[in-house]
Write a structure and sequence with these properties.
Elements: E1 11-14, E2 27-28, E3 42-45, E4 48-51, E5 55-58, E6 62-65, E7 70-73, E8 77-79, E9 86-89, E10 94-103, E11 108-111, E12 114-122, E13 130-132, E14 135-138, E15 142-144, E16 149-152, E17 156-159, E18 163-165, E19 171-174, E20 179-181, E21 185-187, E22 192-196, E23 199-202, E24 206-208, E25 213-216, E26 219-222, E27 226-228, E28 233-236, E29 240-242, E30 246-248, E31 253-256, E32 260-262, E33 265-268, E34 273-276, E35 279-281, E36 284-287, E37 293-295, E38 301-302, E39 317-319, E40 324-325, E41 329-339, E42 342-363, E43 370-381, E44 385-391, E45 397-407, E46 412-422, E47 431-434, E48 437-438, E49 441-448, E50 452-460, E51 465-473, E52 476-483, E53 490-497, E54 502-509
Parallel strand pairs: 1-3, 3-6, 4-7, 5-8, 6-9, 7-10, 8-10, 9-11, 10-12, 11-13, 12-14, 12-15, 13-16, 14-17, 15-18, 16-19, 17-20, 18-21, 19-22, 20-23, 21-24, 22-25, 23-26, 24-27, 25-28, 26-29, 27-30, 28-31, 29-32, 30-33, 31-34, 32-35, 33-36, 34-37, 48-54
Antiparallel strand pairs: 1-2, 35-39, 37-38, 39-40, 41-42, 42-43, 42-44, 42-45, 45-46, 47-49, 49-52, 50-51, 50-53, 53-54
């Protein structure tokens, strides 16, 4: 890499002899680079270099961190006093700033490697674009306050605090770069946010104020609330989940062109409206009667104003492209099957809107139900989804199962009841004998699931069947007595069986 050198400038290249910036032996040629005052040397880092303290007022200087190189600044790093210095982190290079990284001049700042900073601020307008195609890790806040372009075309951006796009036409252009921000995401004034992709995850709230223009093609997940105020405009082209509420006030609009799931309230006031071609779902919905509404493609308007010409939605979701109100879950089937001593409950959904979880219940009489178990559902989905839950201890005999679906706001729907007659094919007949030591008469007791014929056999200790008789049993508990006077003393077995079941018990004759 070559540089255009001003009179007196030197290009210092790290040589691996030392990791200390202030050691002349660390550099070729031997010496210590000067950054904040004349002659503003250039630096090329191929190894690890540690700078103790702060680097400030980097002016008309190039700092290039090549593949395998690392610059670690233990305090702050501020670029830009005058001129247009260059900071370039190549692929495989790393810049770590324990304190604040501040781009305050018309610098050229490029990251293709890894950038770690305590905070990252872009505070000077004009100049070259700030570009990223690598990894950006910011422990605290990422703040862009000025009319400056930031482009990210690859890598990732992870922010432990909040992201703020300021009030002076800052431009944030993102593609192929997932963003995770633990705190709030603030887009203010005349800031512009475009082409976020592939994903944006916000741990706090999203606050849009002023004349904000935002267009998102990414999947969006906001753990908190979405506030849209002023004259801001939001366009969501990717699947969106808002964990809290969504408010639109004044001359604002929200356009949803994909699934747009709101866990809490959707509240529109002033002339704010929500439109698009996607499927929108919410926990509750309200307008203030001053022109705010949900607007479908065909012009149909939904609001909660009793004196307006619009219609209050009955359900909690609308397909804006067809202006159709949707049920939370479109159930394809729900069925119960016997399998190896268990009942397998299976169901399928064709679509789900704002669906939180399913509960399977059972009943002996079809009136009083108890919970068998529950499964989390998909939230919002337009795909066919299959679910399964197993009742490992089913009720013997006739029983009933039903499916309940709960929304995020606690509303629920009960689907059809299915009936099943369960007999555990793997279990033995409940068979008892008393007394177990017999003098004259013995009584056999067993439970039958229904009216049916059984065979009772008495077998001696040599395996010979010495008595066999049929018993016409009724549903429930059955008792059968037999005299053993003609039998000799010893050990005997009694075996009772039906076409499907067999059980055996031992007793003794005195």
């Amino acid at each position: 890499m070559s540089f255009n050198l001003a009179l007196g400038q030197t290009t210092y290249v790290s040589n691996g002899s030392s990791t200390n910036w202030s050691s002349a032996a660390a550099w070729t040629p031997n010496g210590i680079p000067v950054l904040g005052s004349w002659p503003y040397d250039n630096v090329v880092i191929n190894n690890t270099i540690n700078y103790t303290g702060s680097i400030t007022s980097v002016s008309s200087t190039s700092i290039v961190i090549n593949n395998g190189g690392t610059l670690h600044v233990t305090a702050n790093f501020t670029t830009g006093n005058w001129g247009a210095p260059l900071v370039n982190i190549d692929s495989g290079g790393t810049l770590t700033v324990d304190g604040a990284l501040n781009i305050s001049g018309s610098d050229s700042f490029n990251n293709s490697g890894t950038l770690n900073a305590g905070s990252f601020t872009l505070s000077s307008a004009g100049g070259s674009d700030v570009t990223n195609s690598g990894i950006v890790n910011v422990t605290n806040d990422l703040t862009f306050n000025v009319a400056r372009n930031f482009y990210s075309t690859a890598g990732s951006i992870n922010v432990g605090g909040k992201i703020t796009l300021g009030s002076s036409s800052s431009y944030f252009h993102i593609s192929n770069t997932p963003i995770i921000v633990s705190g709030d995401f603030n887009v203010n004034g005349s800031a512009s946010l475009a082409s976020i992709g592939p994903s944006l995850n916000i741990g706090g709230n999203w606050n849009n104020t002023g004349a904000v223009a935002t267009s998102l093609n990414a999947t969006l997940n906001v753990a908190g609330n979405l506030y849209n105020t002023g004259s801001s405009s939001l366009v969501f082209n990717g699947a969106t989940i808002i964990g809290g509420l969504v408010t639109g006030t004044g001359a604002t609009n929200i356009t949803a062109n994909s699934t747009f799931q709101i866990t809490g309230a959707l509240a529109l006031s002033g002339s704010a409206y929500l439109d698009g071609t996607g499927i929108v779902s919410w926990g509750s919905f309200s307008t203030d009667g001053s022109g705010s509404a949900i607007v479908c493609v065909n012009g149909t308007r939904y609001d909660t104003d009793p004196i307006s010409q619009a219609t209050e939605p009955v359900t909690h979701s609308i397909d804006l492209s067809f202006c159709a109100e949707l049920l939370p879950v479109a159930l394809t089937y729900f069925e119960a099957k016997k399998n190896m001593g268990e009942i397998v409950l299976q169901w399928q959904t064709a679509s789900e809107i704002n669906s939180n979880y399913f509960v399977v219940e059972r009943s002996k009489d079809g009136v009083s139900f108890e919970t068998v178990g529950w499964l989390a559902s998909a939230g919002t989905s337009n795909n066919i989804l299959n679910y399964q839950l197993v009742d490992q201890n089913p009720i013997l005999g006739q029983s009933y199962y039903r499916l309940k679906q709960f929304d995020f706001d606690g509303a629920f729907e009960i689907f059809k009841v299915v009936e099943i007659d369960f007999k555990d094919e793997n279990s033995r007949i409940q068979f008892a004998v008393y007394p177990t030591i017999v003098d004259e008469n013995v009584t056999f007791s067993f439970a039958s699931m229904e009216d049916r014929m059984y065979s009772l056999e008495i077998i001696d200790d040599m395996g010979n069947i010495i008595k066999k008789t049929g018993i016409a049993a009724t549903k429930g508990l059955n008792n059968f007595s037999s005299s053993l006077l003609e039998y000799s003393s010893g050990c005997y077995f009694a075996r009772i069986s039906s076409v499907e079941e067999t059980s055996q018990i031992i007793f003794f004759k005195r």
